[in-house]
Design brief:
- This protein has about 170 residues and is an alpha/beta fold.
- The protein has one domain: Rossmann fold.
- The chain has 6 helices and 6 strands, in the order βαβαβαβααββα.
- Strands 1, 2, 3, 4, 5 and 6 form a 6-stranded parallel sheet that branches.
- β1, α1 and β2 (about 35-40) form a beta-alpha-beta unit.
- α1 packs parallel to α6 (about 150-170).
- The radius of gyration is 16 Å and the shape is globular.
- The two termini are about 15 Å apart.
- The relative contact order is 0.18.
- It comes from Coprobacter tertius.
- InterPro entries: Flavodoxin_fold, Flavoprotein-like_sf, KefG/KefF.
- Keywords: Oxidoreductase.
- This is NAD(P)H-dependent oxidoreductase.
Length: about 170
């Protein structure tokens, strides 16, 4: 069975007002292999339905705005309700897991000695642990920083370009 889909699990509570996440989704929506589900719009997670979608996918992407060094609560809820049962199977084993996130702060704030004191990679370790635990292939995260800075347009444009490159890589994976 050939798996050609890429599952993007978006967790954004207000896509209408979003700058970064909205632009990122727009940048990849023309890839027919990409399926996007906004977890914040789901009232109920059907474990069997998600398990089937993920089973048919070749890669999984978690996309969210970085809230207090984490994802919105809907992502955690989805991980608890869906990935916990999946962890007992081999559905995701060997599949890439990519984190795509946006931050209000500039990239320099996320470093040792920076305003936030930690790198984004350090703050995303729980997701890397999840990937490792499930036998997934951890991908270098894509963080689009500076969405509350004067260079927001440049950050978004570069982030969209990099996201398309990541999608193309995952399609060829």
């Amino acid at each position: 069975m050939k798996r050609e889909r890429i599952m993007v699990l978006l967790a954004h509570p207000d896509m209408e007002r979003s700058q970064g996440n909205k632009a990122l989704i727009e940048a990849i929506k023309d890839y027919p292999q990409v399926d996007v589900v906004n977890l914040c719009e789901e009232n109920f997670f059907d474990a069997e339905e998600f398990a089937e979608k993920i089973n048919m996918s070749k890669a999984v992407i978690f996309q969210f705005p970085f809230y207090w060094a984490s994802a919105p609560a809907s992502m955690k809820k989805w991980i608890d309700e869906i990935f916990t049962p999946i962890a007992k199977t081999d559905i995701v084993k060997g599949k890439p897991l990519l984190i795509v996130t946006t931050t209000a702060s500039e990239a320099g704030a996320y470093r040792s000695g920076g305003r936030n004191h930690f790198t984004i990679d350090e703050l995303l370790r729980p997701y890397q642990l999840l990937a490792n635990h499930l036998g997934m292939v951890w991908q270098t995260p894509l963080a689009v920083c500076g969405l509350s800075t004067a260079s927001v347009a440049v950050s978004i444009e570069e982030g969209c370009k990099l996201y398309r490159e990541k999608i193309e890589y995952l399609i060829s994976f």
